[in-house]
Amino acid sequence: MVIVALGLVASFGVVPASSMTKLLGLPNAHLTPGARNPAVTQATIHSTICVSGYSSSVRPPESYTQRLKYAALDSGYNLRGDTSAHDYEEDHLIPLEVGGSPTSPKNLWPEPWNIVWNAGKKDRLENAMHRLVCSGAVSLAVAQRVFTANWIAGYKRYVGG
After folding, report:
1. DSSP states along 138-155
2. To which H or E segment does residue 90 belong?
3. Residue 5 burial (CB < 10 Å; 0-12/13-18/19+)?
4. Do residues 140 and 114 lie in contact, with contact meaning Cβ atoms separated by under 8 Å?
5. Are 141 and 129 in contact (CB under 8 A)?
6. Cβ-based neighbours of 50, under 8 Å, separated by 6 or more
7. CA pseudo-torsion sign 156, 9, 107, 149
8. What is the pTM of this model?
9. Confidence of residue 66 (pLDDT cuts 50, 70, 90)
10. Which of 54, 57, 99, 103 could form an SS bridge with 40, CB 3.0 to 4.6 Å?
11. pLDDT reported for residue 95
12. First to last CA, the chain
């Protein structure tokens, strides 16, 4: 539904699709398509992502993610021209909790805080999908697609409206 609405709005010239994507809190799919960690597969989830402390063990240092965030904001990857770094979280599109690449720039983007569909809401979806994958209720591939397709639609489905 959201994807159709984006296309309709864009085709009528009201708001460009890229601007609408920014307003919704979704990353630019060309710059941030998502990237997976090859060490995390359906067969390895119980020795990787489902082990307590896994995410912190693979999370890149803040010095690395901050550098990417500043570069992205300075190059135009920002919301309505806001380049204030504290208004964003450098976030993994495919979360570490469901096997996202820790360091690939294709999996990291400056996610805005000052919108309805912000980093805090995405964090709730990340936790829900992690629980579902580790319990066997959802496959790893499905969980990863939730984030690469449209995490807002995933939130509505798995967390609630």
Report:
1. S-HHHHHHHHHHHHHHHH
2. strand 88-92
3. exposed
4. no
5. no
6. 133, 134
7. positive
8. 0.85
9. very high
10. 99
11. 98
12. 14
User: Which tokens is 15 given?
Assistant: 């708001």
Cβ(152)–Cβ(119) under 8 Å? no
Both structure tokens of 29: 């799919």
Contact 122, 111 (CB under 8 A): yes
How far is residue 49's CA from residue 47's CA, in Å, rounded to a whole number? 7
d(CA 67, CA 62): 8
- Provide the 8-state DSSP code for 38: T
The amino acid occupying position 121 is K
56's tokens: 């912190």
Is the CB of residue 152 less than 8 Å from the CB of residue 117? yes
Longest alpha-carbon distance in the chain: 49
For residue 143, give the amino acid letter. Answer: A
**pLDDT at residue 141 in the model:** 98
**pLDDT single digits (tens) 100-159:** 999 999 999 999 999 999 999 999 999 999 999 999 999 999 999 999 999 999 999 999
Structural tokens at position 93: 């599109």
